[in-house]
Structures are given as structure tokens and as C-alpha cells.
Amino acid sequence: MLIKKIYNNNIAMVINEKGDEVILVGKGIVFGMKKGDEIQAENAEKKFELKGEAKHKFEKMIQDTPLDYILVSEEIIAYFKEHSTKILDDGIYVTLTDHIANTIERIRMGIDFDMAMLLNVKSLYREEYKLALHAIELLRNAFHLHIDDNEANFITLHIVNAEFKSNMMQIYTITSILESINNIVLKCFKIEVQDNYDFDRFLTHCRFFVQRIVNAEADAQQSAANQEIFQIMKEHSVRQYACVNEIAQMLEKKYNYIVNDEEKLYLLIHLNKLTKDSV
User: Fold this and answer.
1) What is the pTM of this model?
2) Does residue 203 share a domain with residue 145?
3) Residues 32 and 5 in one domain
4) β-strand 2-8 against 46-48: which pairing, if any?
5) FRET partner for 175 with CA separation of 20 to 30 A, picked from 17, 81, 125, 156?
6) What CATH number did the domain enclosing 4 receive?
7) Where would I find the H helices in 66-223?
8) Burial of 197 by CB count in 10 Å (0-12 exposed, 13-18 middle, 19+ buried)?
9) Would you tell me how many other CB atoms lie within 10 Å of the CB of residue 209?
């Protein structure tokens, strides 16, 4: 590999055998070297092969980010990618590394954030929250700091952000809407949510529905055949339909979004599956 650019003694961009740009990271790996020198990839502690916007943003960020933050963030993301059931966008190398750097500095300064607005993240994103808790444990061990489990809420949202390829403001909006839907459903039906696969699956379907709303991807077309099915289900699932209507009213009132019959059918089908044994 040939060095194309040196950022500091620990980080360099190189050209591999295929002609691709690769970022190598490791303590002192390019000390005393210059552009055009040959370097062995084995000398690096971590190798980043990012593309497009993620690569450009990562380049800018790593120049001012301490090496230990970069290395532990890569270890955490590698764990996420290995254990997640979803594909994560490479943008997480930028957003999570930056978040971890800011979090460690904040904790060292004794600054705590109010987590009240994120209390339901654990129940809304169960899989991602478990991954985030593992990340917190890695950070504790790496930096020998007391880090509260509540910090996992922020990391959870960064994972969700990478799944949906949305920005963090959109993720906060999605989470707020999901929380409102969750509260309405639990008010309408007695459901045990702890370790409830059906409830987790229902929330997953709601996530995709809400994502389309937030990203303005809603489809205005409505099938005539589905309209017939919708009418039948309305008559046979009165309580579920009333719950769906309450969700629709909430979305219109709080987010100025009109839920069409096709979307109500989507929610009704999945709510029926969830509440088939509920009272």
C-alpha cells in the first residue's frame, strides 16, 4: 500500500492493491514517513474502507479526534454489525465516533444530561438497546469511568439512525411518534410488553410506517380491493379500529398528517395480530 495522505502520526490514507482509498489507524504507524512511501496494512490497528459521503465526513472528523476514541468506536461498531439483525449505514462511523468522543469528555467534566425525554427508548428499540448496553460496558472498561446505563439511550438512537439512514432530528421525531402510538395501544388493550415477541414485531411495523411519514414517503394511492378488506375488518375488529382511529387523530393533531385508509388497514392488520388474545 502507498501513502496518499498523512493526517497525523497515527492516521493516513493509503491506496491499496485495487486502487481504492483506505484509511489506516494505529499508534505511530506513519511516524517519520511521507506521502508516496509504502506501508504494510498489518501495521495498522484498524482499517476503514468507507465510501462516498461517509468517507469524506470521517476524514474530517478523525483529524481532531483522539486515537483511543476512534479505536474503541470501531470496536463497538464491529460488534453492532456482527450482532444486529439489520444492515447499518457506514455513516455510523462518523456519528457514533463523534458522539462517543463528546460523551467521554462530558462525563469527565461531570456534566449529566436529562434523560427524561428518552425513557421509552429501551422499550421501543429493544434489540438496539441491548447492543447499546454492551457498548457502554466497553466504554467503561476502555476509559475506566462510571458511565450510567442511561447513556445507552443515546447510543440506541445512533444505531436506529444507521438502520434508517435518517438524520438524528428525524429519529427523535420517529421516536416521539412511536411513543405516542405505544401509549395509545397500551391504553386500549391490556398487553404484557416484557419479552413479548408479538409486541416487538408490532412496534417494528409501526417504525416502518412512521419512518415513511417523517420522510414524506407516504403513498397516496389506495387499492379498491384493499378498501373492501378494510370495510370488512372495520366491522369485525371494532375495538382495534377504534384504537387505530385514535392513533390517526393523534397524528393529525400533533403532526398535521392525515392517515389514509390504506395506512389504517396496515395498522389494523398488525394490531389485530397483536391483540388477538387481549381484552
Assistant:
1) 0.74
2) no
3) yes
4) unpaired
5) 81
6) 2.30.24.10
7) 67-83, 92-108, 121-124, 126-143, 152-164, 168-188, 197-214
8) exposed
9) 20
